[in-house]
Amino acid sequence: METSTSSWETHEELIATENGIELTRFIDSLSPSETARAVSRLPESRQIRLLGLLSPEDAAEVIEDIPEAQAADLVEEMSAEKAAAIMEELQSDHLVDVLGEMGEAASRAILEKMPTEDAEEARMLLAYPPDSAGGLMISEYLVCRTDQTIQDVLDDFKANQEEYVGYHVQYCYVVDSYGKLEGVLRIHDLLFPSRTTELSRIMITNPLSVPDNASLKDLQDFFNEHRLFGVPVVDDERRLVGVVLPEAVEEALNERKTKTFLRLSGIIG
């Protein structure tokens, strides 16, 4: 395994030669922690150049590997068009974390360059407190309607395969025509019944959920009691608005512990 120093030096060499292809291959060979260490060793101008040499998809992967504050600083130095192209590739929780670290003017400029639907979704997520269910949830999940059949869902999977492949797919959440959460389906449940079977007949009804204003402590208690892959988040009218994953809660708890330790140690105010 390469050391962080050699990773940093290799980054420097590939950035200097503007070899985007080799740079992408090299970054793909590193673990997230190695990428974060190597990027952090580079001068800020080189970090910005690094993101510019990568495709938006690969640049987004680098952004997800480094601290949100560092990512925000780099993205703010880019043009709004370039920044928006990268930010569109981030998962919703990372997108909101990075935007939340930016100044209001910079985040607004980037959102204005993003597709309308993506920008509206980001603004909705940014409106929640960061340590609430709404602030920690993701918007990449599978949703279907109670009046659809198994064949409808399978057709949707096939049509959107490229988009869904990056989702954390374990369940499909079932809503009514108003978006209210009615049930949940395990992907396994779609394999054996007749393709004409309506989802309302095979879904698990009255699924567990949490309100969008649930606190970090509420979420910790929930996952301590229920060992689930994720929990759907609903608003006051029980409309499905997102999904919280247990690893997001664990990460938020660790960040809170670190900040508390630093504050008690007199390192930060």
Structural summary, described in words:
The chain is an alpha/beta fold and about 270 residues long. Helix 6 (about 70-75) packs across helix 8 (about 90-100). Mean pLDDT is about 90; it is low at about 1-5. The protein is globular. The longest helix is centred in the C-terminal third of the chain and has 19 residues, at about 245-265. It has helices at about 5-15, 20-30, 30-40, 45-55, 55-65, 70-75, 80-85, 90-100, 105-115, 115-125, 135, 150-160, 160-165, 200, 215-225, 245-265, and strands at about 140-145, 170-175, 180-185, 205, 210, 230-235, 240-245.
Brief summary of the model shown:
56% of the residues lie in helices and 10% in strands. The chain is of the alpha/beta class and 269 residues long. A four-stranded mixed beta sheet has the order 1-2-3-4.
| Structural class computed from helices and strand pairing | alpha/beta
Mean pLDDT: 88
Low-confidence stretches: 1-5
Q: Shape, please? A: globular
Helix and strand pattern: HHHHHHHHHHHEHHEEHEEHEEH
Q: Note the beta-strand portion.
A: 5-15%
Write the layout of secondary structure elements.
Layout (H helix, E strand, L loop, with lengths): L3 H13 L3 H9 L3 H10 L2 H10 L2 H10 L2 H9 L3 H8 L4 H10 L2 H10 L2 H11 L6 H4 L5 E4 L4 H10 L1 H4 L6 E5 L5 E6 L12 H4 L1 E2 L4 E2 L4 H10 L5 E4 L5 E5 L1 H19 L5
Parallel strand pairs: 1-2, 5-6
Antiparallel strand pairs: 2-3, 3-4, 6-7
Helix pairs in contact: 1-2, 1-3, 4-5, 5-7, 6-8, 7-9, 8-10, 15-16
